[in-house]
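Sat 14:20. Reprocessing the chain from the morning session after the first attempt stalled halfway. Input below, unchanged.
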Amino acid sequence: MHTSGHQLLEVIDTDFEIPEMLLHSIQRRGFTTTSQLTSFARWYRGLWEKGPLNEPPYNHVTQIGDPVLRQKSSLVPPEAVTSPEVRLLVKLMTDVMRKYDCVGLAAPQIGISLRILVMEFKEKLRDEYTSIEYKTREMNTLPLTVFINPELKVTNFEKKIFPEACQSVRGYSAEVPRYSGVLLRGLDENGFQKELSLKGWNARIAQHEMNHLNGIIYTDIMNRKTFTCTCWQAVNANRGRVSIGFHKK
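Finished this time. Tokens:
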């Protein structure tokens, strides 16, 4: 999930450094617990084999229309939760989330149909909103949070409507109704059971990412009349000479 209508037109690339010891561990394991994780093996091989490889997990965010965003994600097998492969996937998701200035990301958004999500709402985001916006939307900092095989329970059924955006529908936003409070249960990256009570904007982030794990995109539940290109003013000001980047370089 992106932080409401504040989409960026330009993107910056970063390299992901994988520890050599982890690479050797991955190479030895030959992990094939599920068909989804088979793509990991191909990708890992590409880290040391020559030649281009454009298979998931990606270093970019998948876009609406990609079938992976419409699948109900599979559970991570119990024996795989603390594996090097899943740990690396969580690291990649975190890196991509931060690279694209998101506040949340689900595994399908980098091409892997597994039930994993990451969330983070940094204090510096306060500067992107007026004090009234920050208070009205009930925004609060949220440290990096990882959930594997999460389940969501609504704790406050009051719905609030605010603009919402998504890096998988890059360049657009719309008003979306969300429940005011939720409880997330699942496993952390170390395989321990945990639960987290969320309200306001952080509850919205959790619902947005859980939707991704169930093949739902915010465009399915938005107020269609509010669907907006976030750079429409720049399009007019620049006589249409505006492009929306889908990668960071």
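The domain at 20-56+71-237 is CATH 3.90.45.10 (Peptide Deformylase).
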